[in-house]
Amino acid sequence: MDLAAxxxxxxxxxxxxxxxxxxxxxxVLDNVNVSIASGEIVGLLGRSGSGKSTxxxxxAGLLTPTAGEVRWQGKPVSGPTPGVAMVFQSxxxxxxxxxxxxxxxxxxxxxxxxxxxxxxxxxxxxxxGLGGYESAYPKELSGGMRQRVGLAxxxxxxxxxxxxxxxxxxxxxxxxxxLRTDLIDLWMEGKLPLKSVLIVTHNIEEAVxxxxxxxxxxxxxxxxxxxxxxxxPHPRNRLDPAFRQMVDDIxxxxxxxxxxxxxxAATAAAPAQDVTFATPLHPVSTNLLAGLIEALAxxxxxxxxxxxxxxxxxxxxADELLPLGEALQLLGLGLLEEGDIKLTDLxxxxxxxxxxxxxxxxxxxxRAHVPxxxxxxxxxxxxxxxxASAVRFRDELEDHMSPDYAEDTLRTAIAWGRYAELxxxxxxxxQFSLEEEDAAA
Length: 441
Known about the structure:
By secondary structure, the protein is an alpha/beta fold. The chain is 41% helix and 19% strand. The strands form four sheets. Strands 6-7-8-3-9-10 form a six-stranded mixed beta sheet, with helices on both faces. The chain has a four-stranded antiparallel beta sheet with strand order 2-1-4-5, covered by helices on one side. Strands 11-13-12 form a three-stranded antiparallel beta sheet.
C-alpha cells in the first residue's frame, strides 16, 4: 500500500505525568514522537508499564497530554478523535446485548438510522467471520469469537485509524494465531474499512508478523527507544532465518545494557550500582525463578540460552520471560546480554544446591543486591520488638513511583524475603517481624 504524503496522526514531544500530593509528579511518558501514515500498520512494542496504553488513550483523545501536541489529519486533538476506533484486550462487550446490538452501539451513538445500522452491523459481522451469530449473546461465544465481536464493533463505524490494545493476550495460542492471520489477510485484501492500524503489544513475534514499523518503548518513563522498519512482504514466514534474526535483534534491543537514573526502574541489564531502595521489583515468584535457573543449567542450554529460543521452548512471551531474566540479573544469578541469558557462577551453584542451601544463597543475594529487602531486615534488627509496619515502606516507595508499582514492589519484597527466611509477614496486620531465633541472633 502506498503511504500518503501527509500523516494521519502526529504525536509531537508528548509528555504525560500524574500529580502526587506528597512528592514530585510521576512521569509516565517523556518526549514521545509518533507519526502514522495512511496504509501502514504500526506496532508499539514494550514492557508492561512503558506507557503504551497511555499513549493509545492520548491518540484516541480520551486523555490530554501534560505537554506536547497531538494532531489528527493536521488539526489539534482536543477531545475524542473522530475517525478513530479502539479494540480492547478485555472484549468490553455488554452481556445483556446480542452480537448485533453490541456491534451497532457505535452507530447508534452517531445517530445512524436503524435500517442503516442493521445493514452495516451485519456486514461487519460477516466480514470478521461471525455470520449466523447475530442474535447470540456474549456468554454463548468463545473468547476468540467475543474478540471478533469487539473488532466488528470498531470496524462498523468505518474508522480511518484502528487502535488495538493487546487484542490477543487474553486468548489461547491457537485462537490468537487464527484471529491474527485473519486480520492480516483482510488488511492485505483491502477489505478492512480503515486506513491504518496502531497496535500495542508485548509479543515480539506478533509485532514482526503484523507490522510495517515497530516502535520499541523503554520504561519508566516511556520513551521511543528504537524505530524499526519490517522489510518482509505478507504473508510472512516466521521460520524464515531473516524473520528469526529480526526477532532476535529486538530481544537484544530490549535487553541492551544502558545507564539507569536512580529514580527509575532497573532495565534488563542495568549495572548493580544503579539499584536503589526505590527500584521497582518485578512481581515474579521464587518458584518460577528457580525453575528458570534449573532449565538454563540443564541441556541443551548448559548455562546459556538464546532468549527467543528459550521463550519458545518454555511457551513464554517476552513480557513474561524478560522480568524473570531481569530478576536473575538483579540478584546476581544471571546475566542478560544482547538477546541471550546466561547463568553466573552463583546461578550455577544455586541450580545444583539443595533446598536449604538455595535459601541461604538467595538470602545473601537479597541482602547484597536488593536495598529494599536489606532495609526491611535492618529495620527489624534495630527495633526492640523486631516488628515494622508495611505501611511505612509502601509510603516511602510511593514517593518515587505509582501506587500500583509500589504495591507490586512491596509484595515482591515480602515474597522473596519470606522464601529466604529473612523475615516473616503477617497479612492481617500488614506487619513484618523476625522469628524468635533470628531476633536473638
